[in-house]
Amino acid sequence: MTQPLNILRIDASARKDGSISRELADLYIDRIAERRAVRVETRDTSDGLPLVTQDWITANFTPDGDRTTDNRAVLATSDRLVDELKRNELLVISTPIYNFGIPAALKLWVDQVARAGLTFRYTDKGPVGLLDGKRAVILVASGGTKVGSDIDFATPYLRHVLGFIGITDVEIIAADQLMASGPDKIEQTKDQVRALAA
Questions:
Q1: Tens-digit pLDDT profile for residues 105-159
Q2: Does the annotation flag 94 for ligand binding?
Q3: Of 188, 167, 160, 19, which Cα lies nearest the Cα of 85?
Q4: Ranges of H-type helices in 36-103
Q5: What does the record list as coiled-coil region(s) (predicted)?
Q6: What is the number of helices (H) and of strands (E) in the chain?
Q7: How confident is the model at residue 1 (pLDDT cuts 50, 70, 90)?
Q8: How far is 191 from 194, CA to CA, in rounded Å?
Q9: CB neighbours of 149 closer than 8 A, spacing ≥ 6?
């Protein structure tokens, strides 16, 4: 029997309803599920994640064997987020572009999963990502920012961050500049999503 495809879905839009990026993720995962078994784990960053604080930094840089109960409590959410990444093969990120970049909620997720020794390590030749062998699909929506343009600071950042932790097989599909292009652009993007899922 074929093993299910393990998918980690990360949502970032502040909109729970009416979000184009969430709709694209729904479509992509549903289309994959029509062809094979999937197991989907969802992390909605808009529900809130902890900030990196002084206590977090202290705990993170304390060797694992020396961590106190308080240290472990501070890192508990981060540990769960890293475990989610490790146990899934495909990462699906749905995100809008807010003010030329990613939502603050998604940046909090990045800060919690970029952990030396867990998702990357330092070497004499520079940092090396530890999550190789995984794929990522980023489904983006924007009102005015053209994805791939000089004012798009969202998708290059996400591609770089994922590569930093070892995920270099990254596909980006964008429903961008929707304030100008509207429904036609959404339908074109959905066609791209269906093709990718196939």
A1: 999 999 999 999 999 999 999 999 999 999 999 999 999 999 999 999 999 999 9
A2: no
A3: 167
A4: 54-60, 69-74, 76-87
A5: none
A6: 8, 7
A7: low
A8: 5
A9: none
Q: Which amino acid belongs to residue 1?
A: M
| CA–CA–CA angle 30, 32, 35 (5° rounding) | 115
Q: At 126, phi and psi to the nearest 5?
A: 110, 180
What is the phi/psi pair of residue 84, to 5°?
A: -60, -45
Question: Is 138 part of any known ligand binding site?
Answer: no
In this structure, is the dihedral angle defined by the CA atoms of residues 120, 11, 174 and 177, taken in order, positive or negative?
A: negative
The span from the CA of 94 to the CA of 4, in Å, is: 21
Residue 142 is labelled as binding a ligand: no
Compute the distance between CA of residue 162 and CA of residue 146 in angstroms, rounded to an integer: 21
Does 46 show up as a binding residue in the annotation? no
- Taken in order of first residue, the domains within the chain and their CATH numbers are 5-197 (3.40.50.360)
- Determine the Cα–Cα distance for residues 140 and 125; give it in Å rounded to an integer: 33
